[in-house]
Amino acid sequence: MYFELKENKPHGTKDDPFSTYHIENAGQSFQIPVHWHDEFEIIYVKSGFLTVNISGENYIGKPGDAFVVSPGNLHFMGSKTDTVDYFTFLFPLKYISFYTDDILDDRLLEPLDSGRLMISPSVKDTIKELCEQLIEIYKTKKSERELNIATQIKTKIILLQFILEMWEKGFIVENNTSGRNIVEKEMVSYIQQNFTGKISLREFGEQFHLSEKYISRYFKEHFHITLSQYVAYLRLEYAKQLLQDTDISVTEAAMRSGYQNISYFIRSFKKTYGVSPLKYRKKQVDCMQ
Protein backbone atom coordinates (compact mmCIF):
# COMPACT_ATOMS: atom_id res chain seq x y z
CA MET A 1 0.00 0.00 0.00
CA TYR A 2 1.56 3.32 -1.08
CA PHE A 3 0.62 6.97 -0.91
CA GLU A 4 1.75 10.06 -2.83
CA LEU A 5 2.98 13.38 -1.47
CA LYS A 6 1.04 15.69 -1.43
CA GLU A 7 -1.63 13.12 -2.03
CA ASN A 8 -3.48 14.36 -5.07
CA LYS A 9 -5.67 11.31 -5.34
CA PRO A 10 -8.92 11.63 -3.42
CA HIS A 11 -9.63 9.69 -0.26
CA GLY A 12 -13.13 8.28 -0.27
CA THR A 13 -15.88 9.62 -2.52
CA LYS A 14 -18.38 12.47 -2.53
CA ASP A 15 -21.01 10.14 -1.09
CA ASP A 16 -18.63 8.56 1.42
CA PRO A 17 -15.62 10.77 2.30
CA PHE A 18 -14.46 8.46 5.10
CA SER A 19 -11.67 6.09 4.02
CA THR A 20 -10.11 3.05 5.67
CA TYR A 21 -6.87 1.39 4.58
CA HIS A 22 -5.68 -1.94 5.96
CA ILE A 23 -1.93 -2.52 5.67
CA GLU A 24 -0.28 -5.79 6.61
CA ASN A 25 3.24 -6.88 5.78
CA ALA A 26 4.65 -10.39 6.05
CA GLY A 27 7.81 -9.82 8.01
CA GLN A 28 9.48 -7.80 5.26
CA SER A 29 10.86 -4.33 5.77
CA PHE A 30 8.84 -1.51 4.23
CA GLN A 31 8.39 2.23 4.38
CA ILE A 32 5.49 4.30 3.14
CA PRO A 33 7.40 7.44 2.06
CA VAL A 34 6.81 10.90 3.46
CA HIS A 35 3.56 12.57 2.44
CA TRP A 36 0.83 14.92 3.66
CA HIS A 37 -2.83 15.58 2.99
CA ASP A 38 -5.72 17.81 4.01
CA GLU A 39 -7.63 15.12 5.91
CA PHE A 40 -7.24 13.97 9.49
CA GLU A 41 -5.62 10.56 9.73
CA ILE A 42 -5.81 8.08 12.58
CA ILE A 43 -3.17 5.33 12.51
CA TYR A 44 -4.09 2.29 14.61
CA VAL A 45 -1.67 -0.57 15.27
CA LYS A 46 -3.49 -3.89 15.40
CA SER A 47 -0.40 -6.07 15.91
CA GLY A 48 3.36 -5.83 15.64
CA PHE A 49 5.42 -2.69 16.03
CA LEU A 50 5.15 0.27 13.67
CA THR A 51 7.59 3.16 13.35
CA VAL A 52 5.70 6.41 12.79
CA ASN A 53 7.23 9.80 12.05
CA ILE A 54 4.98 12.85 12.30
CA SER A 55 6.39 16.34 11.73
CA GLY A 56 9.92 15.07 12.35
CA GLU A 57 9.13 13.27 15.61
CA ASN A 58 9.65 9.50 15.79
CA TYR A 59 7.26 7.16 17.61
CA ILE A 60 7.10 3.40 18.03
CA GLY A 61 3.56 2.04 17.98
CA LYS A 62 2.74 -1.22 19.72
CA PRO A 63 -0.53 -3.22 19.52
CA GLY A 64 -3.46 -1.05 20.57
CA ASP A 65 -1.62 2.24 20.07
CA ALA A 66 -3.01 5.04 17.91
CA PHE A 67 -1.53 8.16 16.35
CA VAL A 68 -3.21 11.22 14.89
CA VAL A 69 -1.93 13.14 11.87
CA SER A 70 -3.45 16.61 11.68
CA PRO A 71 -4.04 18.15 8.23
CA GLY A 72 -0.88 19.34 6.48
CA ASN A 73 1.60 17.49 8.69
CA LEU A 74 4.39 15.55 6.98
CA HIS A 75 4.46 11.93 8.07
CA PHE A 76 5.66 8.47 7.12
CA MET A 77 5.61 5.02 8.65
CA GLY A 78 7.27 1.65 8.25
CA SER A 79 8.98 -1.33 9.81
CA LYS A 80 12.44 -2.80 9.30
CA THR A 81 11.72 -6.47 9.97
CA ASP A 82 8.58 -6.94 12.04
CA THR A 83 5.26 -8.33 10.84
CA VAL A 84 2.90 -5.40 11.21
CA ASP A 85 -0.87 -5.20 10.89
CA TYR A 86 -2.33 -1.70 11.06
CA PHE A 87 -5.21 0.46 9.87
CA THR A 88 -5.40 4.08 8.79
CA PHE A 89 -8.64 6.06 8.89
CA LEU A 90 -8.87 9.29 6.89
CA PHE A 91 -11.64 11.87 6.88
CA PRO A 92 -12.09 15.59 6.17
CA LEU A 93 -13.25 17.45 9.26
CA LYS A 94 -16.27 18.77 7.39
CA TYR A 95 -17.49 15.15 7.35
CA ILE A 96 -18.49 15.56 11.02
CA SER A 97 -19.19 19.30 11.01
CA PHE A 98 -22.75 20.45 11.58
CA TYR A 99 -22.32 23.56 9.38
CA THR A 100 -23.76 25.71 12.13
CA ASP A 101 -22.11 28.82 13.47
CA ASP A 102 -22.17 27.54 17.05
CA ILE A 103 -19.49 27.25 19.73
CA LEU A 104 -18.46 23.75 18.60
CA ASP A 105 -17.74 24.82 15.03
CA ASP A 106 -16.39 28.24 15.96
CA ARG A 107 -14.02 27.26 18.76
CA LEU A 108 -13.09 23.68 17.95
CA LEU A 109 -13.90 22.20 14.55
CA GLU A 110 -13.01 25.23 12.42
CA PRO A 111 -9.70 25.89 14.26
CA LEU A 112 -8.82 22.21 13.86
CA ASP A 113 -9.63 22.35 10.16
CA SER A 114 -7.66 25.56 9.57
CA GLY A 115 -4.65 24.36 11.57
CA ARG A 116 -4.83 26.80 14.48
CA LEU A 117 -5.47 23.80 16.72
CA MET A 118 -4.16 20.27 16.34
CA ILE A 119 -4.45 16.89 18.02
CA SER A 120 -1.31 15.63 19.74
CA PRO A 121 0.26 12.97 17.46
CA SER A 122 0.71 10.20 20.01
CA VAL A 123 -2.54 9.27 21.76
CA LYS A 124 -1.30 5.77 22.62
CA ASP A 125 -4.11 3.35 23.57
CA THR A 126 -6.71 5.96 24.57
CA ILE A 127 -8.96 5.32 21.56
CA LYS A 128 -8.39 1.59 21.08
CA GLU A 129 -12.09 0.76 21.51
CA LEU A 130 -13.16 3.42 19.01
CA CYS A 131 -10.63 2.17 16.45
CA GLU A 132 -11.89 -1.39 16.87
CA GLN A 133 -15.41 -0.11 16.17
CA LEU A 134 -14.18 1.59 13.00
CA ILE A 135 -12.60 -1.70 11.90
CA GLU A 136 -15.93 -3.47 12.32
CA ILE A 137 -17.58 -0.79 10.17
CA TYR A 138 -14.83 -1.29 7.58
CA LYS A 139 -15.63 -5.01 7.46
CA THR A 140 -19.35 -4.28 7.16
CA LYS A 141 -18.83 -1.83 4.29
CA LYS A 142 -16.75 -4.39 2.40
CA SER A 143 -19.68 -6.80 2.47
CA GLU A 144 -22.28 -4.20 1.48
CA ARG A 145 -23.18 -3.80 -2.18
CA GLU A 146 -24.22 -0.17 -1.82
CA LEU A 147 -23.75 2.70 0.60
CA ASN A 148 -25.71 2.34 3.81
CA ILE A 149 -27.03 5.43 5.58
CA ALA A 150 -27.08 3.67 8.95
CA THR A 151 -23.41 2.75 8.54
CA GLN A 152 -22.52 6.39 7.84
CA ILE A 153 -24.43 7.55 10.90
CA LYS A 154 -22.54 5.06 13.06
CA THR A 155 -19.23 6.20 11.57
CA LYS A 156 -19.93 9.85 12.32
CA ILE A 157 -20.98 9.04 15.87
CA ILE A 158 -17.69 7.23 16.47
CA LEU A 159 -15.66 10.11 14.99
CA LEU A 160 -17.51 12.64 17.14
CA GLN A 161 -16.77 10.42 20.14
CA PHE A 162 -13.12 10.48 19.06
CA ILE A 163 -13.10 14.31 19.03
CA LEU A 164 -14.79 14.30 22.46
CA GLU A 165 -12.17 11.90 23.86
CA MET A 166 -9.37 14.08 22.52
CA TRP A 167 -10.95 17.20 24.03
CA GLU A 168 -11.63 15.69 27.45
CA LYS A 169 -8.16 14.15 27.72
CA GLY A 170 -6.40 17.38 26.75
CA PHE A 171 -4.98 16.12 23.45
CA ILE A 172 -6.30 19.12 21.49
CA VAL A 173 -3.64 21.82 21.67
CA GLU A 174 -2.39 24.95 19.96
CA ASN A 175 -0.63 24.08 16.71
CA ASN A 176 3.08 24.77 17.17
CA THR A 177 4.11 22.88 14.01
CA SER A 178 2.55 25.19 11.44
CA GLY A 179 5.91 26.80 10.66
CA ARG A 180 7.88 23.58 10.66
CA ASN A 181 8.80 21.31 7.77
CA ILE A 182 8.66 24.16 5.24
CA VAL A 183 11.96 23.19 3.59
CA GLU A 184 11.03 19.51 3.66
CA LYS A 185 7.68 20.24 2.01
CA GLU A 186 9.38 22.30 -0.67
CA MET A 187 11.84 19.46 -1.33
CA VAL A 188 9.26 16.74 -1.73
CA SER A 189 6.96 19.01 -3.72
CA TYR A 190 9.82 19.78 -6.12
CA ILE A 191 10.53 16.08 -6.56
CA GLN A 192 6.87 15.29 -7.14
CA GLN A 193 6.67 17.93 -9.85
CA ASN A 194 9.85 16.75 -11.61
CA PHE A 195 10.16 13.00 -10.97
CA THR A 196 9.41 12.00 -14.57
CA GLY A 197 12.58 13.79 -15.68
CA LYS A 198 16.15 13.48 -14.53
CA ILE A 199 16.77 14.73 -10.98
CA SER A 200 20.43 14.75 -9.98
CA LEU A 201 21.88 15.54 -6.58
CA ARG A 202 23.67 18.50 -8.16
CA GLU A 203 20.51 19.94 -9.66
CA PHE A 204 18.57 19.27 -6.47
CA GLY A 205 21.26 20.92 -4.35
CA GLU A 206 21.37 23.98 -6.59
CA GLN A 207 17.60 24.32 -6.33
CA PHE A 208 17.85 24.56 -2.54
CA HIS A 209 21.29 26.19 -2.34
CA LEU A 210 22.87 23.20 -0.61
CA SER A 211 25.89 21.05 -1.44
CA GLU A 212 25.42 17.62 -3.04
CA LYS A 213 26.96 15.90 -0.01
CA TYR A 214 24.79 17.78 2.45
CA ILE A 215 21.56 17.41 0.49
CA SER A 216 22.02 13.64 0.30
CA ARG A 217 22.60 13.34 4.04
CA TYR A 218 19.80 15.80 4.86
CA PHE A 219 17.26 13.89 2.79
CA LYS A 220 18.22 10.54 4.28
CA GLU A 221 18.20 11.83 7.86
CA HIS A 222 14.82 13.55 7.57
CA PHE A 223 12.91 11.05 5.44
CA HIS A 224 14.73 7.76 6.15
CA ILE A 225 14.96 7.11 2.43
CA THR A 226 17.43 8.19 -0.24
CA LEU A 227 16.58 10.69 -2.94
CA SER A 228 16.90 8.04 -5.67
CA GLN A 229 14.63 5.65 -3.75
CA TYR A 230 12.00 8.34 -3.40
CA VAL A 231 12.13 9.19 -7.11
CA ALA A 232 11.82 5.49 -7.95
CA TYR A 233 8.81 5.18 -5.67
CA LEU A 234 7.02 8.08 -7.36
CA ARG A 235 7.79 6.75 -10.83
CA LEU A 236 6.50 3.27 -10.05
CA GLU A 237 3.36 4.60 -8.40
CA TYR A 238 2.67 6.82 -11.40
CA ALA A 239 3.23 3.93 -13.83
CA LYS A 240 0.93 1.73 -11.76
CA GLN A 241 -1.78 4.38 -11.90
CA LEU A 242 -1.38 4.70 -15.68
CA LEU A 243 -1.70 0.93 -16.11
CA GLN A 244 -4.81 0.95 -13.98
CA ASP A 245 -6.57 4.00 -15.42
CA THR A 246 -5.53 4.04 -19.10
CA ASP A 247 -5.11 1.58 -21.96
CA ILE A 248 -1.64 2.79 -23.03
CA SER A 249 1.06 0.18 -23.53
CA VAL A 250 3.50 -0.89 -20.83
CA THR A 251 6.30 0.76 -22.78
CA GLU A 252 4.42 4.06 -22.97
CA ALA A 253 3.55 3.91 -19.24
CA ALA A 254 7.22 3.32 -18.41
CA MET A 255 8.44 6.20 -20.56
CA ARG A 256 5.82 8.62 -19.25
CA SER A 257 6.95 7.72 -15.74
CA GLY A 258 10.56 8.58 -16.42
CA TYR A 259 12.00 5.18 -17.37
CA GLN A 260 14.17 4.90 -20.47
CA ASN A 261 15.10 1.24 -19.93
CA ILE A 262 11.90 -0.82 -20.26
CA SER A 263 13.48 -4.05 -19.02
CA TYR A 264 14.68 -2.28 -15.88
CA PHE A 265 11.19 -0.85 -15.36
CA ILE A 266 9.57 -4.29 -15.62
CA ARG A 267 12.07 -5.79 -13.14
CA SER A 268 11.57 -2.91 -10.70
CA PHE A 269 7.79 -3.10 -10.98
CA LYS A 270 7.74 -6.85 -10.33
CA LYS A 271 10.14 -6.55 -7.40
CA THR A 272 7.99 -3.85 -5.78
CA TYR A 273 4.48 -5.12 -6.46
CA GLY A 274 5.05 -8.86 -6.86
CA VAL A 275 3.67 -9.07 -10.41
CA SER A 276 4.70 -7.88 -13.85
CA PRO A 277 3.06 -4.72 -15.27
CA LEU A 278 0.93 -6.78 -17.67
CA LYS A 279 -0.27 -9.13 -14.93
CA TYR A 280 -1.04 -6.17 -12.71
CA ARG A 281 -3.21 -4.59 -15.43
CA LYS A 282 -5.01 -7.89 -16.07
CA LYS A 283 -5.67 -8.26 -12.35
CA GLN A 284 -7.20 -4.78 -12.20
CA VAL A 285 -9.42 -5.51 -15.20
CA ASP A 286 -10.57 -8.82 -13.71
CA CYS A 287 -11.46 -7.07 -10.42
CA MET A 288 -13.75 -4.62 -12.22
CA GLN A 289 -15.65 -7.34 -14.07
TrEMBL record:
Keyword Metal-binding (UniProt): no
Q: Which UniProt keywords apply?
A: DNA-binding, Transcription, Transcription regulation
Domain HTH araC/xylS-type, first and last residues per copy: 185-283
Which Gene Ontology molecular function entries are recorded, alphabetically?
A: DNA-binding transcription factor activity; sequence-specific DNA binding
Q: Which InterPro entries does this UniProt record tie to the protein?
A: AraC-bd, Homeodomain-like_sf, HTH-like, HTH_AraC, HTH_AraC-typ_CS, RmlC-like_jellyroll, Tscrpt_reg_AraC-type_HTH
Signal peptide (UniProt feature, chain positions): none
Q: Which SUPFAM superfamilies match?
A: Homeodomain-like, Regulatory protein AraC
Entry annotated with the keyword Transcription regulation: yes
Q: Which Pfam families match?
A: AraC_binding (PF02311), HTH_18 (PF12833)
Name the record gives this protein: Helix-turn-helix transcriptional regulator
